[in-house]
Write a structure and sequence with these properties.
Length: 517
């Protein structure tokens, strides 16, 4: 007998390169700024047992988390605020904000707690926040909770926006509970694990401006530059360039919203990200029948945050940020203000440049010409007059033939029937054909390009509502999973889900989405 009785070869524990929450590298650099910027506070777990509603495997992989940990009870404990990952320093961030045009000198995370940040295998930093995890010093009259309904909406929409290629916070998971939460009706509490490189808002700067604590504005701006805009550190006045960069990112973000028909609903300056991300999903809505004055937030009686107000509101919010950064822009207040004004005045042109580019791409145009603006506007006007669904129209338009024969050879890609005034659409189609000919547009290539920018699937309110009702009534989360998977690839045909690409049913018009969440 030789020593081969013990076969150690291939009998050693497997090495996982993936982390679990127990060993994920976790720290909190924001906490090191000091307590003028936040209040340390731990999450308050639910009174009832928590359960997993959905777990975002893609986001887990992004963080280097082992997707298999999805079923571990320890993970549920972290995601429901029962235990903290090692290295976490839970805190609620302080901010102010202009809400519906009025300054609120102190707000802050009233129901969200930032645990810290992790660095992904590819070197990206992501902050983790629990939303709906109990009272903080900034909860004011709120209960610190989030209901399942609004949590599902934020979870699905942030993934849908990511799928559309629009900068946004992400979500790692959502957990549910049997805790009763009082809104217009009795609902149940849920928690979302939100991810962003940073949750710092325009309002995070405003709070110190109105307290005359200018040194804290500088500390915060330096932190943002060091962690998120490192290239600016070498500038002679990095704060000027920071403002310029945020203006550019915000202009691009809002152009992207407009191009897919997204309305945020509560564009207060405390809901505007310093990184140009879509942040704080509340009563948002994707436009269906094209209506520029579309208001998705039923509490917004004046239509301040209507679809066609978003571009200007973006500028209003940027001017709130510029005001708060004023002490850093120039030693001479007057010169700083002049600089800010002239930089803000670049926003409209930046917006138009992005928006025009996106709309041209939606029409499959590759060259820019002077007539494009009226071509787009006249189509939008026709859509408005005929109450044509924004998403369906642009998707079908990819079936357009620019030759001399039939305009739409595939009947299921013919949008003509969407118009009551079909002759009006025909006249527009002839202009479009002439325009395409001018740049020798190839139909097949254009179709491919258009289908990569005109989504087939968006998060329609009624789709979210069906998923919410199933989840609330039966704890059935299958519809959430279907929508989640579908909306990760909004440009793909996914013909098995054809029904999700159609017009909303009649009852969809009765869904009211308010601020209460
Ligand atoms: P929002 O417009 O939803 O982004 O919220 C505005 C402010 O109200 C923020 O400071 C939130 O943290 C706070 N807030 C919203 N809902 C609640 C709640 N249920 N409990 C405590 N604070 C809340
Ligand atoms: Mg908010």
């Amino acid at each position: 007998m030789g020593p081969t009785v013990y076969n150690l070869i291939n009998d050693y524990p497997s090495i996982s390169l993936m982390y679990s929450f127990n060993n994920i590298p976790f720290s909190n650099s924001f906490a090191s700024l000091g307590e003028v910027f936040f209040s340390p506070i731990a999450p308050t777990p639910f009174r009832s047992p928590a359960h997993m509603v959905h777990f975002n495997i893609d986001a887990a992989e992004l963080l280097g988390l082992d997707p298999a940990s999805k079923v571990e009870p320890a993970l549920l404990a972290f995601l429901s605020g029962q235990s903290l990952p090692p290295g976490a320093k839970p805190l609620a961030m302080l901010y102010a904000g202009h809400q519906f045009g009025h300054l609120v000198p102190q707000l802050g995370d009233g129901r969200a707690i930032m645990l810290g940040e992790t660095t992904t295998p590819s070197g990206e930093r992501w902050e983790l926040q629990l939303k709906g995890c109990g009272l903080t010093p900034y909860s004011r009259n709120g209960d610190g909770r989030a209901v399942l309904r609004s949590t599902i909406r934020e979870y699905l929409c942030s993934e849908a926006m990511h799928g559309l290629g629009i900068p946004t916070t992400r979500a790692l998971a959502m957990v549910g509970s049997h805790d009763v939460v009082y809104r217009e009706t009795l609902e149940t509490g849920a928690m979302l694990t939100r991810l962003a490189p940073s949750h710092i808002r325009f309002g995070s700067f405003e709070v110190f401006y109105y307290r005359n604590q200018f040194e804290h504005i500088k500390t915060l701006a330096d932190y943002v530059i060091a962690h998120h805009y490192p290239a600016l550190a070498a500038e002679s006045n990095p704060y000027q360039v920071l403002l310029k960069e945020v203006i550019a990112r915000t202009a691009r973000l809002i152009a992207q919203w407009q191009s897919v028909g997204f309305t945020h609903g509560v564009m207060n300056s405390d809901n505007m990200s310093i990184l140009g991300l879509t942040l704080d999903y509340g009563p948002f809505g994707f436009m269906e029948a094209y209506e520029p004055g579309y208001i998705c937030n039923h509490s917004d009686h004046e239509g301040r945050y209507a679809f066609d107000q978003q571009t200007e509101t973006g500028l209003f919010n940027l001017s709130c940020l510029a005001q708060a950064l004023l002490p850093l822009l120039d030693e001479q207040a007057e010169q700083g203000a002049e600089w800010a004004k002239s930089t803000l005045s670049e926003y409209p042109a930046l917006f138009v440049e992005h928006y025009a580019g996106l709309m041209r791409a939606k029409l499959g145009l590759q060259e820019a010409t002077i007539e494009d603006q009226s071509l787009v506007q006249d189509l939008l006007d026709l859509m408005q007059a005929n109450r044509v669904d924004y998403t369906i129209l642009f998707r079908k338009l990819s079936g357009f033939s620019s030759g001399s024969g039939l305009r739409f050879t595939n009947p299921s890609y013919n949008p003509r029937d969407l118009f009551i005034n079909q002759e009006g659409f025909d006249a527009w189609a002839e202009r479009y054909a002439a325009r395409l000919k001018k740049e020798n547009s190839n139909d097949a290539e254009r179709r491919t390009r258009m289908n990569q920018v005109n989504p087939k699937y968006i998060l329609r309110n009624y789709l979210a509502e069906i998923a919410i009702r199933k989840a609330e009534d039966k704890q059935d989360y299958t519809e959430i999973d279907i929508l989640f998977t579908l909306l990760q690839r909004p440009f793909d045909e996914q013909i098995e889900f054809e029904a999700y690409a159609g017009h909303p049913p009649g009852w969809a018009g009765d869904i009211a989405v308010s601020c209460s969440s």
